[in-house]
Amino acid sequence: MAEGAARVTEAITAGPGLALCAYLTAGYPDPAAFREILPALAAAADVVEIGVPFTDPMADGLTIQRASQVALDYGVTLGSILTLLAETPLDAPVLLMGYYNPFLAYGLERLAESMTETGTTGLIVPDLPLEESGDLFHTLETRGLALVRLVAPTTPPARMRVLAESSRGFVYAVNATGTTGKAADFDEATLDYLDRVSSVSPIPVLAGFGIRDRSQVATLSGHVDGVVVGSALIEEIDRGGDPAAFIAGLRPEAAGQ
Amino acid sequence: MMSDSGRFGPYGGRYVPETLVAALDRLEASWGELSKDPTFRARLRAEQTSYVGRPTPLTPAPRLGEIWGARVYLKREDLCHTGAHKINNAIGQALVAVAMGARRIVAETGAGQHGVAAAAAAARVGLPCTVYMGVVDVNRQRANVERMHLLGAEVVPVDKGEGTLRASIDEALRDWVTDPEGTYYLLGSVVGPHPYPTLVAELQTVIGVEARSQIITATGGLPDAVVACVGGGSNAIGIFRGFLDDPDVSLVGVEAGGDGVIHGATLNAGRVGVLHGAMTPLLQDQQGQVLETHSIAPGLDYPGVGPEHAMLRDRGRARYVTVDDPTALAALRECAVAEGVIPALESAHAFAGARRWVEDHVGATVVVCVSGRGDKDLDIIREWSGG
Ligand SMILES: Cc1ncc(COP(=O)(O)O)c(C=O)c1O
After folding, report:
1. Which of A170, A177, A231, B317 is the most exposed place for a label (fewest CB within 10 A)?
2. CB A169 within 8 A of CB A5
C-alpha cells in the first residue's frame, strides 16, 4: 500500500469527476451511529475527514460547534477515535481534522505512530498556520503522512505558492472568509481565487467551507479537483437522512438518476 | 524580550486560521510603524492625558499599611476614565484601527470593563463597535452592559461554553475571521496571537513607567514589591514592565484561586497548550480539552494567560500566587473601609496577595496595582453577602 499522503492524492485523482471528501465529527450523532455511518460514508466518498472534537472550535460555525460538543459529551477522545479506526477497515483514506491542542496533548510522535498503525493518512489542523507547523510537518513527513495546508481568499500570492508546495495529499482551499457552514457563494471572484490556487498547486485542490448541494459541485468543475462537505452532511443526519446517499447524490453524474 | 516570531521563550506565537494570517501581519507592520511615528505618539499621549486622565496618582495607603505592617502605595488605575486600566489599551488600539482604515471594531469582554473601554474608545474615534460577552457575565456585570449600550455599542450575549470570557473570545474570533480586512479586533489583554501580547503590553506599560517614577518621588527609592492581579495579565505586565530591570523589586502576580476546586490559576496549575492563538500555560485535561474555570472576579475567570507571564515565571523574575474568592472579597472590604477606595474584585486579588506577601516582609514597601474600581461588582458582592 502506498504511503498515507500518496493514498489521499490517488483517491482524489482516481475517479472521473470531482472528488468528494466527507467530513463528519467523530462520535456524531452518537458513537454507535457513527460506527455504522463511517463505513458507508467511506464507500460513498473518495476521502473521509473525521473531526476530532475540541472545546473551542474557533473556525467553525454553529453546526460543527454543536457536533463537537455532542461528541465531547459522549466522551469521544483522540484515543477512542484511533481505536475505532484500528478496528474498522474503510474503503476510502481517512484524515483527521481538528484543532492543534488535542493533537499536542496526545503527543505528536505518538500520534504519528498511532496514525501509521491505524492506516490514518494525514491531518488537517485549521489553527496551525505554516509558521507554527514545523514540528508537526516533520513528524508526519518522515512517515509519509500528510499535513494538508489550508489556503484562504486572504492568502497573498507568494504565500499561496509556498503553502501549496508544502501541502501533502491535497490543498484545502477555504472558499470564503468566515467559519464553516455558511452557504458559499461561488461568484466570479471566488472562482478566480480557486483557479489561482489550482494554478500554483502541484497537487489536487479541494474546495471547502459552505458546500451544500450538487449545483455548487457542478459549478466548481474545472476549477478544483474536489470538494469537502461537512456542515451540510451533519445537517442531513439531523434531518434523519442517509449520509452516504447524500454524499453520492452530490456527484454531478447522479443528476440524471 | 520578544523574538521576531512573537515568542516569549517557548510561549506565544500565532496559532490562527490561515484566513487571519494576513490581517495579523498587517497589524504587526502597522503597529511597528505607528509606535515609532511621532505624530501617532503625540496623538496617543494627548488622549492618555486629556481623555483617559493620565497620569493616574500613586496614593499612599497609610491605614492599610498600619494593618498590614508595611508601607503601601496604590497605583490608581481605577481612576482612569471608564474605571479600569483597560482604556489604556482600548484607546491606543482604536487609534490603530483608524490608522489602518478599519470600518468597525469588535471586542470580547469578561468583567465588561474591556467592553466598556472598547465601546468608549470606538465612540471616541467614530467607529461602530460590537462586544461579545458571555451570558453569565452579562448577568453578573449588568451595569457594564448598560454602559456599553449607552456608548452606542452592540452587545452580543454568548451562550456557548460556560458563557464567560473564553467563549466571548471564541465568538469575537469567529466574527473577525468573517471580515478580517474591514473589521478590527480590539483584544483586551496580553493574550491571543502575535502581535497582540506585545501590542497590548506596550500600551499598558505606561502604568509601570508612571508608577516607578512616582514611587521614587514619594519614597526616594524603589519598592520591595509590585503586586498585580493576573487574568490575561495586561495590568500586571503593564506595571511589571516598569520594574523588570530592577532586580531587587519582587514582582508578584495574583491569580484567581476561585472556590479552591475550580479556579483560574493558569500559571499555578496549567500545562502548556494552545488556545486563542497562542502557546501558553492552559487549564486543560489530559486530552487537551480546555477546562471549566471559576472566579468571583469575572475578569480573572479565564483558562489561559499571557505568554510573557509564563516566561517571567520560568525565569524566576516574577512569582505567581493564588487568592480564593472569599479572601479576595475580604480584601475588597478591608481596603474600602481603611482607605475609602473600593477596588474591583479582580484588583482585590492583588490586595490579598500583597497582604500575604507582606506577612513575610514586615516593614516592606509595596505597590499594589488597583486595576479597576468596584462599582461594577455591587451585584456580585450583594449576592455573596446573602442580601
Ligand atoms: C478591573 C480589572 N482588573 C483586571 C482584569 C484582568 O485583566 P488583565 O489580567 O488583562 O489585567 C480585568 C479584566 O476584565 C478587570 O476588569
Report:
1. B317
2. yes
